[in-house]
Design brief:
Chain B: Its EC number is 3.6.3.-. Chain B: GO terms for molecular function: ABC-type amino acid transporter activity; ATP binding; ATP hydrolysis activity. Chain B: InterPro entries: AAA+_ATPase, ABC_ATPase_HisP-typ, ABC_transporter-like_ATP-bd, ABC_transporter-like_CS, MetN_ABC_transporter-like, P-loop_NTPase. The structure holds two protein chains of two kinds. By secondary structure, chain A is mostly helical. Chain A has a single domain, classed as MetI-like (MetI-like fold). Chain A is 81% helix and 0% strand. The longest helix of chain A is centred in the first third of the chain and has 34 residues. Chain A is flat and about 70 Å long. The termini of chain A are far apart. In chain B, helix 3 packs across helix 4, helix 3 runs parallel beside helix 5 and helix 4 packs across helix 5. In chain B, the strands form two sheets. A six-stranded mixed sheet of chain B has the order 6-7-8-3-9-10, sandwiched between helices. Chain B has a four-stranded antiparallel sheet with strand order 2-1-4-5, covered by helices on one side. The mean pLDDT of chain B is 93. By secondary structure, chain B is an alpha/beta fold. Chain B is globular and about 55 Å long. In chain B, strand 1 and strand 2 form a beta hairpin. The chains are: A mainly alpha, B alpha/beta. The interface between A and B is medium-sized, with 20 and 27 residues.
Chain lengths: 216, 242
């Protein structure tokens, strides 16, 4: 193992690490919010919203992330929009992940007993209030483990943004490898950087799961 | 206060409620009894539109519930409901459970909602449970919190859907006592129950339903001592003679 590569090119690794962290954080928050909205759309009694929600989920979770990323990077200039690799990649990752998170949250909502909705609605709360105050907080608790998985996938999936100049970890690793003609060691180091993000994330989800389980 | 006029309800082909005619006056305590699956709960749930009716007319305080223009949330604020399985919000404390609707549906301030909640919690006899979570309470206590939650909206009508059916036998009394006190204060109540003692003692009128039809309507003394319909006689003999 040639540690001099890690030392010599640490700045590039670090830049990539920071960008990956940024992309992950933005996409994580945005995909959670969009996912929650899509989940609620998919179960509302109002049919057109339900159709839009279903179409969104079925479309985006059934095409490769790379194609969504290509669309926002290479496709949007035709529409007069130009995004950097970072922006296009973050949007693509958010949309792709939100489809999965939406499905997870939807299953969580369906797992909340029906009586909760009935009690809240019969007390005069409207549908949106009931969702926000009563149903979603209980649903989130149920779906923390599957959502945790999605967040870990999200961090790893960000690596494909290397293909659209996302300037994140994988992109930097490709550059370092091209400069040094070393493949194996370069990518082993990059794997470690991913682990630095994903392992705490994994532990954090486990901790949250335990804490919320105890609170009931 | 509540008026059913030729109300029918279908679930697909299944005729759940058949030509229901029923008027409930202010301050009256009406007890609905009948065998399982007879439509008693469905009838009750129509009153706050948890179930919609297929045809006929149903008014609460002269507001037509099946009218598209009716703001159902507004109507529901005047009707408290207590469920068989309590349906307390497990992620909120007892006090928060009671304060939630007054704050969010009526727009009352937090301080005022807290005062109201404490008042009703005291009234149902468990002021010391304010900061507990529902899962820390017994079934009887949970149901009393559910009643306090309904009352905190200062409703004009209270609906009870088999409020004691999910309780251990020794907890039934404490819930019925609260309901009895409420009836004595003049609350308009519609109660679906299998507690015949309560029906006899507290009810102003008994409504007997079977297969979606009201078969008999009478004062409790008359109904229990001298039921006219054969189906009601059979029903009573089965539940009273053991």
């Amino acid at each position: 193992m040639d540690f001099s590569i890690l030392v010599d090119y640490f700045d590039m690794y670090w830049d990539g690490f920071v960008v990956t962290l940024k992309i992950s954080l933005i996409a994580l928050i945005a995909s959670f919010i969009i996912g929650a909205i899509v989940a609620v759309m998919r179960i509302t009694p109002f049919a057109p919203l339900r159709w839009i929600g279903t179409a969104y989920v079925e479309f985006f979770r059934n095409i490769p992330l790379l194609i969504i990323a290509f669309f926002f990077y290479f496709g949007t200039p035709a529409l007069g929009l130009e995004f950097s690799g970072f922006t296009a990649g973050t949007i693509a990752l958010t949309i792709y992940t939100s489809a999965f998170i939406g499905e997870a949250i939807r299953s969580g909502i369906l797992a909340v007993p029906k009586g909760q909705m009935e009690a809240a609605r019969s007390s005069g709360l409207n549908y949106i209030q009931t969702m926000r105050i009563i149903i979603l907080p209980q649903a989130i608790k149920i779906v923390i483990p599957p959502i945790g998985n999605q967040f870990i996938n999200l961090v790893k999936n960000s690596s494909i943004l290397a293909l659209i100049a996302g300037t994140e970890l994988m992109y930097q690793a490709d550059l370092i490898s091209a400069k040094t003609y070393v493949v194996f060691d370069v990518y082993i180091f990059v794997a470690v950087f991913y682990l630095i993000i994903t392992i705490p994330l994994s532990l954090g989800v486990g901790y949250l799961e335990k804490r919320l389980a105890n609170s009931n | 206060m509540i008026s059913f006029g030729h109300v029918n309800k279908y679930y697909g082909d299944f005729h759940v409620l058949k030509d229901i005619d029923l008027t409930i006056k202010t301050g009256e305590v009406v007890v609905i009894i009948g065998p399982s699956g007879s439509g008693k709960s469905t009838l009750l749930r129509c009153i706050n539109r948890l179930e919609t009716i297929t045809d006929g007319s149903l008014t609460v305080k002269d507001v037509h519930l099946n009218d598209k223009k009716t703001d159902i949330n507004k109507v529901r604020r005047k009707i408290g409901m207590v469920f068989q399985h309590f349906n307390l919000y497990p992620h909120k404390t007892v006090l928060e459970n009671i304060m939630l609707a007054p704050i969010n549906a009526l727009g009352i301030s937090k301080e005022e909602a807290k005062k109201t909640a404490e008042f009703y919690l005291d009234k149902v006899g468990i002021p010391d449970k304010a900061t507990s979570f529902p899962s820390q309470l017994s079934g009887g206590q949970q149901q009393r919190v559910a009643i306090a939650r309904g009352l905190a909206m200062k409703p004009e009508i209270m609906l009870f859907d088999e409020p004691t059916s999910a309780l251990d036998p020794e907890m039934v009394g404490e819930v019925l006592d609260v309901m009895k006190a409420l009836a004595e204060e003049g609350m308009t109540m519609v109660v679906v129950t299998h507690e015949m003692g309560f029906a006899k003692e507290v009810g102003d009128r008994i409504v007997f339903i079977d297969q979606g039809k009201i078969l008999e309507e009478a004062a409790p003394v008359e109904f229990f001592e001298n039921p006219k319909e054969e189906r009601a006689q059979v029903f009573l003999s089965r539940i009273l003679n053991h």
